[in-house]
Write a structure and sequence with these properties.
alpha+beta, 2 domains, four-stranded mixed β-sheet, four-stranded antiparallel β-sheet, 8 helices, elongated
Length: 241
């Protein structure tokens, strides 16, 4: 039998009619057409980045030929690079702050006031924040960072490692907690509370987390110590929670 190429939805209709006429029964044209588009999108999205699936499919549905759909899908995903996927992982394995405080509410108790005064003095902050405003302190100059690490994220973490360090992450038992495990360029210590400490060659990783912290201040204020030989702090102010 000669090779049959289904170039568009009309070709698909003809094939399904032929099968129906041969007694193979009804097969959903709509379902197969969507499976074809999903397959094209899946092949185009080589990095597996997140995207607005409904918006993209609506756009692709307007095109006639599957070759045009493939071109448009490839063009759409060409806008994404490795950094986009790394930033997804940064958000997944989000960094834990080293210190935290919330400004007193309008009717604070003594404990709230004392905590805020101590925190304010520690980081040389002014009384310029609204009541109940969250302030986080991150020390990226420490010799390790603490990140969120759920049990079911092993596959994603290994991909994350490979994208950042350009090498395969060695297999490790995520059930073993409380001691350092060498993965290659970094070491990891897992904890039962769903967090992990990471140390080693952290220069690239810290830069990604630095950019993440700088961009995640909209409803809070972030204080960052990073590449600071004299202890200088960077304060990224946000709006009220």
């Amino acid at each position: 039998m000669d090779k049959l190429e289904i170039k568009n939805k009309e070709d698909l209709k003809k094939v399904l009619k032929f099968l129906d006429d041969q007694g193979f029964g009804y097969i959903s044209e709509y379902e197969l057409h969507n499976k074809k588009i999903n397959s094209i999108i899946s092949k185009s999205n080589k990095l597996g980045v997140k995207y607005d699936a409904d918006k993209l499919k609506t756009s692709l549905q307007k095109l006639g030929n599957y070759s045009d759909i493939e071109k448009e899908s490839n063009l759409f995903f060409s806008k994404f690079g490795v950094n986009d996927k790394i930033n997804e992982y940064i958000n997944m394995f989000y960094i834990q702050s080293a210190d935290y405080c919330k400004t007193p509410w309008t009717r604070p108790d003594s404990k709230e006031i004392i905590e805020w005064v101590d925190f304010k003095k520690k980081y040389k902050l002014a009384d310029e924040f609204d009541a109940g405003h969250s302030i986080y302190y991150y020390n990226l100059d420490a010799n390790f960072i603490k990140v969120h690490f759920s049990d079911y994220k092993m596959y994603e973490f290994k991909n994350f490692y490979k994208l950042v360090f350009d090498e395969e992450c060695v297999d490790f038992d995520q059930r073993k907690t409380g001691f350092w495990i060498k993965l290659g360029k970094i070491e990891i210590k897992l904890f039962q509370n769903g967090y992990a400490n990471i140390k080693g060659d952290l220069k690239k990783l810290k830069e990604y987390y630095y950019q993440y912290i700088k961009s995640s201040h909209h409803n809070n204020t972030n204080i960052i110590k990073y590449n600071s030989s004299d202890g200088q702090l960077e304060i990224i102010k946000g709006t009220k929670d």
